[in-house]
Amino acid sequence: MIEMNVAGIALDATTRVPIVLLKDSTERRALPIWIGQNEARAILSVLENQSPPRPMTHDLLGNCLTALDVSLERVIIHALEDNTFFAVLTLKQGEKTQRVDARPSDAIALALRLNAPIWVMEEVVADASIPVDQEADEEERAAFRNFLDNIRPEDFAQSSGGGEPSSLG
User: Fold this and answer.
1) 114 contacts 158 by C-beta, under 8 angstroms
2) Given strand 18-24, what is the order of strands in its sheet?
3) Of 13, 71, 73, 165, which residue is the least packed, with the fewest Cβ within 10 Å?
4) Distance CA 142, CA 136 (A)
5) What is the distance of C-alpha 44 from the center of its chain?
6) Strands, E, within 103-147: which ranges?
7) What is the pLDDT along the chain (169 residues), one digit of tens a residue?
8) How far apart are CA 116 and CA 109, in angstroms?
């Protein structure tokens, strides 16, 4: 799993549908998730440090969890099927842990309110992420190709302590 952070909200240029953009800690990969208008507003309100005069839905849920002494341990975006992302909330009360199915947009809005980490399965990142720093990616690929071009069989020989390759026989 890869921990990701909310980088912001954008609008799809064609459809004008909001997109929440998650980035990994290196900011080399971004995961765009298309969401609804209400969820975009809920996420933006936290990102912009706005607090409504009365609790909105995600605030209410967070307040209920807190009042019941339930912590949101993490959000996990675990699958992508037919262009739909799937997430779970990992809730903990005392020693009991429970996973609850959630839409990623709701899970993200709640995680931001409760300062919970957002994790994404590596397969989801591999399938749906977009490169942010293509130059760094290419430099990494070039360095790896250089490593492969210059590796020699004797680089794999085991040492017997004296610096000489050990015999296998």
Assistant:
1) no
2) 96-102, 84-93, 71-81, 118-120, 2-11, 18-24, 29-34, 130-131
3) 13
4) 10
5) 18
6) 118-120, 130-131
7) 999 999 999 998 899 999 999 999 888 889 999 999 999 999 999 999 998 899 999 999 999 999 999 999 999 999 999 999 999 999 999 999 999 999 999 999 999 999 999 999 999 999 988 887 556 556 666 666 666 677 777 766 665 555 554 444 4
8) 10
Residue 102: CB atoms within 10 A of its CB come to 19
Q: How do strand 18-24 and strand 29-34 relate by DSSP bridges?
A: antiparallel
The single-letter code of the amino acid at 50 is: Q
- Provide the residue count of the chain: 169
